[in-house]
Amino acid sequence: MIFTDQLGRKIILEKIPQRIISLVPSQTELLFDLGLEEEVVGITKFCIHPDSWFHSKTRIGGTKQFDFEKIKSLQPDLIIGNKEENDKEQIEELMKNFTVWMSDIKTLADACKMICEIGELVGKKEKSKSLSNEIELGFSVFQEKIKSFPKKRVAYFIWKNPWMVAGKENFIDEMLGVCGLENVFLNLEGRYPEISLTDLSEANPEVILLSSEPYPFKEKHMEELKAVCPNAKILLVDGEMFSWYGTRLLKSPSYFQSIVEAS
């Protein structure tokens, strides 16, 4: 069987994969929800959902630092990665010896397409299509609920020292748009640009969102930003809801509803 990944690469599978390694947390959760308890043999140390897999599956390193010997020992017949979350050179090294399918996700449509395509890869076509349809319906209902809400200008922080925000052409910005929020840093170069607090003051967002990942923002960080933007609404948010593009999206609309209402 010949498949095309989201980088446009052709891969060949002689049969439905029986030994799968996932290099991306959100895609690991998808594989769990597809019912691949036995087939998934390796995950990363950041694949924290589901908890049972985090404590039982072999960990092959991080998303950007692979343990190649451990991967080799698992003898995978399919490795699933992502263009943004994994290191290009290390992925290319894996491609020399293993079948690797890559996702490339910037939009909700990309995410739903990935869910369906991975479902086909692993012999779970109907289940993956059902999950994708449920996600699309959830977001459709959510957007209908919030269409009367005013569109607010937002800054979404992912890091401190240096301060870094979500910029353009990434999944977080897509989710902000879905929530009816306008990213104030789309004018900057790069998907996750560094900014100064002066930049923040000049951008003057109405809402500031502090993500729980990759930097674990807490309440203590809110005061520093409040001093710069005293009129902004500052909220701590669950980064998984904004940046995980697998079946976590089933839970996102109801969570986003609470964020929109609090903003």
Record the SSE blueprint:
Blueprint: E1 2-4, E2 10-12, E3 20-22, H1 25-33, E4 40-43, H2 51-56, E5 58-59, H3 68-74, E6 78-82, H4 88-95, E7 100-103, H5 108-121, H6 125-146, E8 152-159, E9 164-165, H7 171-178, E10 181-183, H8 197-203, E11 207-211, H9 222-228, E12 233-237, H10 239-243, H11 252-262
Parallel strand pairs: 3-4, 3-6, 4-5, 6-7, 8-10, 8-11, 11-12
Antiparallel strand pairs: 1-2, 8-9
Label the CATH architecture of the largest domain.
3-Layer(aba) Sandwich
What is the fourth-level CATH superfamily of the largest domain? Nitrogenase molybdenum iron protein domain
Radius of gyration computed on alpha carbons: 19 Å
Shape: globular
Report the CATH C-level class of the largest domain: Alpha Beta
Count of helix runs: 11
Portion in beta strands = 15-25%
Order of helices and strands: EEEHEHEHEHEHHEEHEHEHEHH
Report strand order across the widest sheet: 5-4-3-6-7
What does the model show?
- This protein has two domains: 2-107, Nitrogenase molybdenum iron protein domain (Rossmann fold); 149-262, Nitrogenase molybdenum iron protein domain (Rossmann fold), CATH 3.40.50.
- With 263 residues, it is an alpha/beta fold.
- Helix 4 links the parallel strand 6 and strand 7 (100-103).
- The strands form three sheets. The protein has a five-stranded parallel beta sheet, sandwiched between helices.
- It has helices at 25-33, 51-56, 68-74, 88-95, 108-121, 125-146, 171-178, 197-203, 222-228, 239-243, 252-262, and strands at 2-4, 10-12, 20-22, 40-43, 58-59, 78-82, 100-103, 152-159, 164-165, 181-183, 207-211, 233-237.
- 40% of the residues lie in helices and 18% in strands.
- Helix 5 runs antiparallel to helix 6 (125-146) and helix 6 runs parallel beside helix 11 (252-262).
- 38% of the residues are buried.
